[in-house]
Amino acid sequence: MSALTPPIRPEYELRLEAFNEIPVERPLPLATRVWAQGWLRKGLILVVLALLWELAARWQDNDLLLPTFSATARALVDGLASGELVQKVGISLSVLLQGYIGGVLLAFVLTTLAVSTQLGRDLLDTLTSMFNPLPAIALLPLALLWFGLGRGSLVFVLIHSVLWPLALNTYAGFQAVPETLRMAGRNYGLRGLRYVLQILVPAALPAILSGLKIGWAFAWRTLIAAELVFGASSGKGGLGWYIFQNRNELYTDRVFAGLAMVVLIGLAVETLGFATLERLTVRRWGQQR
Questions:
Q1: Which domain holds residue 173?
Q2: Distance of CA 132 to CAs 3, 119, 283, Å?
């Protein structure tokens, strides 16, 4: 038997036609470009929530229990125009700033010790296990005994509310820094505080920013809750006392105006503060999407 030989395909050359047309990128439709704006989508969410609030209040038809959105907006504008609400907000923010800065500094000291020495790690683990589950507002009666009816009591509970979540997030971020970066810092002779500031902090910045945001949220709501008690005890206070006082006088629209001011300040700090900081740092550096 002769071996089978497969048929040989004849060769041929395929000539391509010359391509002279340059594709033109068409712009996205206007609706798509507008919808891509994050501020617009968030604004629409707020508008929908305001409409639902207005409808629910009109269906309830009891201003003492649930004032309408329009009545709350009028109370908010009146409080800002009279200056009373502005004064209360200023008092609250000044106290918040002192406690927040104090908590951030102490958290940085603890985490620096934790990444530098074994004793610092043991100290951070022990203190966070003891005090992180303890609600900050529960320390207010003790703070009133120690610091009296003054700003010091509020600053003390604010430092407690900021310190532990920020320290935990910062230390977790330091632990997640790649060993390659650590060795690079040691090869350049960086030690102690310089090593922390130039190597660990930039690499762990996403975790640090998360801790700062969590600490801010804890501090803000702790302050409002503490001012309810502190204001009732001393007869003065900030935004929390404004809410408490108007609740006693049954001005429910002003109570909701005070709560709306708490929400607006939180949105402003998140949008103008932390979002801008993230855009200029971790997103610009490619550490976060």
A1: 67-280
A2: 85, 19, 30
Nearest to 255 by CA among 93, 88, 138, 96: 88
CA 243 to the chain's CA centroid: 23
Average pLDDT, the chain: 82
Task: Give the position of tokens 């439709």.
Answer: 29
The predicted pLDDT at position 135 comes to: 85
Residue 82: count of CB within 10 angstroms of its CB = 10
Structure letter (DSSP) for residue 269: I
Burial class (CB within 10 angstroms; exposed 0-12, middle 13-18, buried 19+) of 284: exposed
Residues 61-86: tens digit of each pLDDT: 887 888 888 888 898 898 888 888 88
Q: What is the pTM of this model?
A: 0.78
State how far the alpha carbon of 286 is from the alpha carbons of 52, 203, 279, in Å: 39, 11, 10
53-75 per-residue burial string, b: 16 or more CB within 10 A, e: under 16: bbeebeeeeeeeebbbbebbbeb
Q: Provide the CATH number for the domain around residue 232.
A: 1.10.3720.10
Number of domain units in the chain: 1
How far apart (Å, rounded) are the C-alpha atoms in residues 242 and 236? Answer: 9
Contact 242, 88 (CB under 8 A): yes
CB 79 within 8 A of CB 265: no
